[in-house]
From TrEMBL:
Descriptive protein name: Acyl-[acyl-carrier-protein] hydrolase
Membrane-spanning ranges: none
EC number(s) from the headed UniProt entry: 3.1.2.-
Cell location: Plastid, Chloroplast
C-alpha cells in the first residue's frame, strides 16, 4: 500500500437536547473539578419542574470529566438506542441503523440528494456508530486504545454505488457496520434504503488503516486496539470485495484540466486540512455540463494518497474512457455546426435520439486525479473513477 497521510475527519450534525431526557447524561453536580466538587448551581422552575444548571469549567487531563465531554455526552458503555440521533443497534447489537430526513440544503437543482450529501451522511452514521459503542474517546472515531497510542483512522479507499437518489423530504434508513481487513486494517460498509418502501438506494464500502498522529506514518494495530474493535466485526459485505482494477495516473494531457484550485476557509476541517467531501466536488466540477444534464453518477471509487492543506494549490484532471471520447468528439462536432445530410446534425441525431449506434446507452466512465502543484513535482492527493448512466425519463424531478 502506498504511503499517504489523508486524514478522515468527519463533520458532525448538531441537535439540541436541552428539553429532552437522556439516560446517559452525567450528574453535573457530582463532577469534581481539579479535586473539588462543583457546587455552583442555579435552580429554575418551569411549569412546576425544577431544573438545576451546574457550571462546569474545563479541566486538565487528570481523569475527571471536562466541559467538552459533558457537552458532547459521550457514552462510556455500549448503548442500544440513540434517541437524539434516531439510531438503534442492529445485527445482534454490533451494527447501527440511523433514520435521517433529506433536508432542503442536501439536494441539488433536481431536488435529489447530492453525492456530497450522501458522503456526509455516511461519515455521520459511522461516527454515531462508534458513539453508541462506548468506545469513542476524544478523537473523531478513535477508540480509547487508539488515543493512548496516538493513533488515528485514515481512509485509503472508498467506493459508493448509487442505484437511485433520494428526493427532498424523503426518510432514509442507513445501516453501517465494520469488518476485518487484513492484520492492520478495517472495512466499514453502508446500506442506504427508503424507509417507506425498503428499496436499497445506495451501497458503500471503505478501507481504513491506522496512522500515528505525531509521525504521520502508517502504524500496525496494537493488540489492545484489536481487542476493542474485533467484537464488532460482521462477516457481510455491502459491495463484493473484487480485486480492484488499478486506477491509472493521469497527466497534463487529460482532456479536462482545472488548475489553480485554492482551498477556502470553509473547505477546511478543524485540523486545517481540506475535508474529503471537497475533493469529490473538485472532481465532479471537471465533468462536462452536458454529461451532468443527461447522466447521473452511479459509481465512484476513490483512492486516497495524502492530505491537502490550506496553502496548497490543487489541480483537478479528468479524462473520459473511449466511449466518452467518442461522445465528446460528436459534441464538439455539433458545436462546430458540422451539419450533414441536408441540415441534419449527425452528432445531434445520435445524442438526442437515444443512441442509435448503441454506444450512447452504455455507461460512461471518467478517470480523475487531484494533485498538488509543487515547484519540483506534483504530489497526488486522490485518484478516482466515476461511472455515469443515462438518466431515466422516470427519474424524479428530471427534466429529461
Amino acid at each position: 500500500m502506498a504511503t499517504f497521510s489523508y486524514l478522515a475527519y468527519f463533520p458532525v450534525r448538531c441537535s439540541s437536547n436541552r428539553d429532552s431526557y437522556d439516560p446517559n447524561k452525567q450528574k453535573l453536580n457530582n463532577i469534581k473539578i481539579n479535586g473539588t466538587s462543583t457546587k455552583s448551581t442555579t435552580k429554575q422552575v418551569e411549569a412546576g419542574v425544577t431544573t438545576t444548571f451546574t457550571s462546569v469549567a474545563s479541566v486538565t487531563a487528570n481523569g475527571y470529566m471536562t466541559e467538552q465531554k459533558v457537552r458532547q455526552n459521550i457514552p462510556t458503555t455500549k448503548q442500544s438506542v440513540d434517541h437524539f440521533r434516531q439510531g438503534i443497534a442492529v445485527e445482534g447489537g454490533v451494527g447501527y441503523r440511523q433514520r435521517v430526513v433529506i433536508r432542503s440544503y442536501e439536494v441539488g437543482p433536481d431536488k435529489t440528494a447530492t453525492l456530497e450529501s450522501i458522503l456526509n451522511l455516511l461519515q455521520e452514521t459511522a461516527l454515531n456508530h462508534v458513539w453508541m459503542s462506548g468506545l469513542l474517546s476524544d478523537g473523531f472515531g478513535a477508540t480509547h486504545g487508539m488515543m493512548k497510542n496516538d493513533l488515528i483512522w485514515v481512509v485509503s479507499r472508498m467506493q459508493v454505488q448509487v442505484d437511485q437518489y433520494a428526493i427532498w423530504g424523503e426518510v432514509l434508513e442507513i445501516d453501517t457496520w465494520v469488518r476485518a481487513s487484513g492484520k492492520n486494517g478495517m472495512k466499514r460498509d453502508w446500506l442506504i434504503r427508503s424507509q417507506a418502501t425498503g428499496q436499497v438506494f445506495a451501497r458503500a464500502t471503505s478501507t481504513w488503516v491506522m496512522m500515528n498522529r505525531k509521525t504521520r506514518r502508517l502504524s500496525k494495530m496494537p493488540e489492545e486496539v484489536r481487542a476493542e474493535i474485533e467484537p464488532w466485526f460482521i462477516g457481510k459485505q455491502a459491495i463484493a470485495d473484487d480485486v480492484p482494477e488499478k486506477i491509472v495516473k493521469l497527466d497534463n494531457k487529460a482532456m479536462y484540466v482545472n488548475s489553480n484550485l485554492k482551498p477556502k476557509r470553509s473547505d477546511l476541517d478543524m485540523n486545517h486540512h481540506v475535508n474529503n467531501v471537497k475533493y469529490v466536488r473538485w472532481m465532479l466540477e471537471t465533468i462536462p455540463d452536458h454529461i451532468l444534464e443527461s447522466h447521473q453518477l452511479s459509481d465512484i471509487i476513490l483512492e486516497y494518497r495524502r492530505e491537502c492543506g490550506s496553502s496548497d494549490i490543487v489541480q483537478s484532471l479528468c479524462d473520459p474512457d473511449e466511449e466518452g471520447m467518442l461522445i465528446e468528439g460528436l459534441k464538439q462536432q455539433e458545436n462546430r455546426d458540422m451539419n450533414l445530410m441536408n441540415g441534419f446534425s449527425l452528432a445531434a441525431g445520435i445524442l438526442e435520439g437515444g443512441g442509435f449506434l448503441g454506444f450512447e446507452k452504455q455507461p460512461l466512465m471518467y478517470t480523475h486525479l487531484l494533485q498538488i502543484n509543487g515547484e519540483t513535482k506534483n504530489e497526488e492527493i486522490v485518484r478516482g473513477r466515476t461511472t455515469w448512466n443515462k438518466k431515466s425519463p422516470t427519474t424524479p424531478f428530471s427534466s429529461m
